[in-house]
Amino acid sequence: MAELREMLGLQGKRALVIGGGAGIGACISLRLAEAGCDVAVCDFVADNAAAVTEQVRALGVEGVPVVGDVLRHEDVPSLVAAAEGELGGIDVLVNIVGVSHWASLIEMPLETWNLDHELNLRQVFLISREVAKLMVSRRRPGVMTCVTSVSGIQAAPNHAAYGAAKAGLVQLVRSMAVEWADHGIRVNSVGPGSIVTPRLPRTEARDNFMRKNGVPLARRGEADEVAKAILFLSSNMASYITGQNLMVDGGWSAANLCVRADIATP
């Protein structure tokens, strides 16, 4: 374990995980803690943040809960400041938050379009910028990783607002990586395919699609498999990687499959 921690180079680092109270967010909060990070677990559900924080502390590092709603853009500075104040700084930012709403483009209300862009793109920009300001002001290098989607690199029928926002996020990651490289800040993303989470649990329809419709690894991914990819990008093992979107999709995008509403929705 000591050799692995040394290889990762995360021991003693301070991490803020946005959406860290459940699913992929909970997994990466715990993986970072195992690597030696102190972790601020941010979630809009206070009980979720508190529960994962306790698990973080049980791994022998500092854990602090931060409760906040990323849709309240006016609260972003205070949310980030709270995490920095509790941890004494932020070296690692992971942003898991993202939600897809399903409707055809003809029927999609403007409110749905706007909400998907606020949840999947705008809040990432606002939080990343706020953390970058702190890193630059402290003259400390750092690393940021967010979550895109296979739907952001190919067609996203019946969830086009989500796909468009995730495509924008892929581009935003590249731009942040280039703009902030001079300050020693690396920025990357992971692009999941179909992942088993509390919000998208296993169903026979989803499992059958993965087995029968050309996904090379013929199964859905696990939340911890995405978390491990984020851990890699957050670590010194990825020290020469920035501006990249690492697909964690079982080969979905390589096979050029199209996400369909009948298998992706509950």
DSSP E strands, number: 9
Helix content: 40-55%
Spans of 5+ residues with little confidence (pLDDT < 50)?
Answer: 261-266
Give the integer mean of the pLDDT values.
Answer: 94
Outline type: globular
What does this structure look like?
The protein is an alpha/beta fold. It is 45% helix and 16% strand. The protein is built from nine helices and nine strands. It has helices at 2-8, 23-34, 46-58, 76-87, 110-138, 160-180, 204-212, 223-234, 261-264, and strands at residues 14-18, 38-43, 63-67, 92-95, 142-147, 185-192, 195-196, 221-222, 245-248. The protein has a seven-stranded parallel sheet, with helices on both faces. It has a two-stranded parallel ribbon with strand order 7-8. Strand 5 (142-147), helix 6 (160-180) and strand 6 (185-192) form a beta-alpha-beta unit. Helix 2 packs parallel to helix 3 and helix 2 (23-34) packs across helix 8. The longest helix is centred in the middle third of the chain and has 29 residues, at 110-138. The protein is globular and about 45 Å long. Mean pLDDT is 94; it is low at 261-266.
Would you kindly provide a brief summary of this structure?
Helix content is 45%, strand content 16%.
Topology:
Layout: H1 2-8, E1 14-18, H2 23-34, E2 38-43, H3 46-58, E3 63-67, H4 76-87, E4 92-95, H5 110-138, E5 142-147, H6 160-180, E6 185-192, E7 195-196, H7 204-212, E8 221-222, H8 223-234, E9 245-248, H9 261-264
Parallel strand pairs: 1-2, 1-4, 2-3, 4-5, 5-6, 6-9, 7-8
